[in-house]
Specification:
single chain, alpha+beta, Immunoglobulin-like, 3 domains, three-stranded mixed β-sheet, 7 helices
Amino acid sequence: MIKRTIVSIIVFFCMTYVVFSQSLTSSESTLKASPQDSIIGNLVNVTLEVTAPINALIEPDIPEDFYGFELINTKKTLTKSENEIKTEIFQYEVVSFTTGEKEIGPIKTTISIPNGETRSISSGTVKINIRSVLTPQDKDIKDISDNLKINLPLIFYLIATLVLLLLILGITALFRKLKNSKKLKYNEKIKTPEEKAQYRFEQLEKPDIFLILGRPGYYQELTDILREYIFERYDIQAPEMTTSELLKKLKPEPWFTEVYNQIKNVFVRSDKVKFSKFMPTEETASEDLKTALDIYHRIKYKGETSQEELS
C-alpha cells in the first residue's frame, strides 16, 4: 500500500512537471514564399511555420497592408507534434499590383502556455521579385497601378480642359453680346452722313446714357460719330486710323484748321479713357459732347463752303 502511494505521488509530480515545465525557449518561426520570382497580379504563397510547446497558443500578428501586398486568403494547418512540441503552419495567399523587389516580414508571433508564460518571437524576412509579363528589354512597360494613377487623372484633365474651354467661349460670347448691346443703333432709314451724325449725337444727349454706356463706351461712340462722318463726307479713312495718324492727315485740310485743337483734345481724352483707364466725370463727358457737336457743325459748314468754292 505504501509503495502504491509513493508511485502515485511520483507519477503525479512527473505529470505536473511535464505540464508546467514546458519552456518557450525552444519556440521559433520561419518564413517562406513561393514563388520568389513572380509576375505582377499572380498569387504568391507565403508560409509561416511556428514551433512551440504542444499546449501553447500561437497568434501571428499580420499587418493590414501585408507589407505592400493584398491578402487574398489565409489558411492554418497543424502539421505534426513530437516530444510535446508542435509545428503550426500558416499559409497566406497574396498578390502585388506593382513591380519591383519587395520584402515580406518579419512577422511577429505571440506564444502563450497554460502556466502563464508568454513569449513574442519574430520570423525572418523573405524577398520576392515582382516583374511584368514583358521582358526587361521592353522599356515602355508600366505597372498596373501606374496606369491607374496616370490614366484617371488624364481623363480628368481632359474633361476639365474641355469644360474650361466651353466656359471661356460662353463668357466671350456673353461679353460680346453685352458690348454690342451698349452700342447705340441709328435708324437704318437715315441716309445722309449729316442725318446719321445728328441722330447719334441726339442719342448721346439722352439722360443716364453716360451710366448706361459707361465711360469707355460713351467716348467710343463719341469719337466714332466724328470718325465715320469724316469718312463718309470727306473720304478720309478716319475709322481705320489712330488718333495721331488722323490728326496728321487732317492738319493740311483748310476746313479743319479752326477745330484742330478741339479734335485733338477730345480724341486724346478718349484714348486715355479706353487705354489708360482715365476716369473723367460725367460733367467732363458732357462738355466733350458739346465740343464734338461744335466740331461737327464747323467741319460740316466749312466743308460745304469749300465745296461751293470749288464748284
